[in-house]
User: What shape does this take?
Amino acid sequence: MHPSYSVIIFTTASGAGYGLLVWLALFRMFGVIPAERWLGFLGLGTALGLITLGLLASTAHLGHPERAWRAFSQWRSSWLSREGIAAMATYVPAGLLGLGWVIFETGGFFLGLVALLAIIGSGITVWCTGMIYASLPTIRQWYQPLVPPVYLAMAMATGGLLYNALAHMFGHGSALSAGAALLAVIAALVIKGLYWRVIDSAPKKYTAEAATGLGHLGKVRPLDPPHTQPNFIMREMGFKVARKHAVKLRGLAIIFAFLIPLFALVLALFAGAPAVSGVAGIVALLSGAVGVIVERWLFFAEAEHVAMLYYGAEAA
Amino acid sequence: MTTLPTSTKKKLGLVIDLDICVGCQACATSCKEWNTGGYSAPLSDIQPYGADPDGAWLNRIHTYEAGTGPEGRTVHFPRSCLHCEEPACVTVCPTGASYKREEDGIVLVNPDTCIGCKLCSWACPYGAREYDPAHGVMKKCTLCVDRIYNENLEEEDRIPACVRACPTGARHFGDLGDPNSDVSKLVAAREGYDLLPEFGYKPVNKYLPPRPRRDAYSQDKSTVAAAPIEPSDNEAGTMAAKLFTWADRMLSR
Assistant: This one.
């Protein structure tokens, strides 16, 4: 599948934003971090800024972005519609949390409740993003139960890295902030690793013979194409990353998204000096940002669509 | 509304005979011609005479080679929307622009509400939907909904443009929900089949498989290709044969 940059920016930026929102709401709910105005302003500002940037980027690949509001109507059947609604709904508790935190610098039961709602809303939104892909039987690498957990885990990991870096900026960097990010990165590595194992061994269920229904005659090969230049189907569904490049890129994704952040966070945990922990946290964040973009690009580039069976793919 | 109707009054669709399709592309060009001037905006063509032409077409004609050796054969394979009974392209649509008509089962896109997110094209295993970059919306076969009910056209023209254009009669149009319709009888007689039934989308359009070969080879597969014909000594030696050969040579002068 063609890796569209707007969709890569959308899923990575909004994923990190929701992840950060969850960590902030969680730690505020349990009083781990104080209701400090500037921490709340910058933290929630970053989270909601990334979410909004992502949602705006997602409209960039639309043919008619001005009609995007119509996407809120078909929640009964469409995961894309559900995602849009969940994203909009999550702004409400996130905004209220920001209001209480930044303007009034308070906590209390009510803000605990909106924090909980913001966590639930973020989780549902990211899950819906994953389900958009996981609900398409036409794409073997996406039609996997692990896809929504991968999206959720990557959101929590990148959000955790953001939270840890941010906490250090305000002097709240602690074993807890680094430890939370570390756990999230390890969980994401395990889930993504499992996902890669699953898609590598997932059988190709469909063949050119099955797609054309001509298998009883023997092997089916394209003889004369229907058009001389690539069409929409071939460009959108036919994008293919070379196997050796995919292996290299997976290596880069593992190194940048998981291994460098992992070592940096372990260093931060045992460094003792806050300055070292802070710098390590920033290294972890920057590396994770590069890694998640490679990971997301590969999520699209490695995906194979059944429709390409009509254009010479032997199996999908 | 992207939720599907529980049932449709008719199941209008096409039956495509792979045995007699000659791959002439008349249906594809006729489809393009009708649909670029009919319903909705023109089907875009970008640099149609340039080095890298691009455009949205609703019907694509592939040519495959099926089988190998003497059994191998060329099969022309028209591919367009199959107007599935349970189309995933409709249910994934976030805006309700994609819909399946309750009255006749035709799957359509409302070009006024489509946001051009392309998710429907991802959901379709048949590659039937093509995005129109100039119009910014998804395009697909309409089963010529603006022809088949069009009372301004002659009765004989109230069929899809592709069916009207086919010079070999390889395309048929009708109600596949009615077991007594001509198309349903044809499908029953020729064992018409669904493309990729594994997906469970229940395509309405049916394909008729190429008929088995009827030449000597396929009737007796043990026969090896016949030996080249050489004049037998018996015949060549007869007086009459020599005479005919001489006469032939003389007359050829």
About this structure: The mean pLDDT of chain A is 94. Residues 243-271 of chain A form the longest helix (29 residues). The two ends of chain A are 12 Å apart (CA to CA).
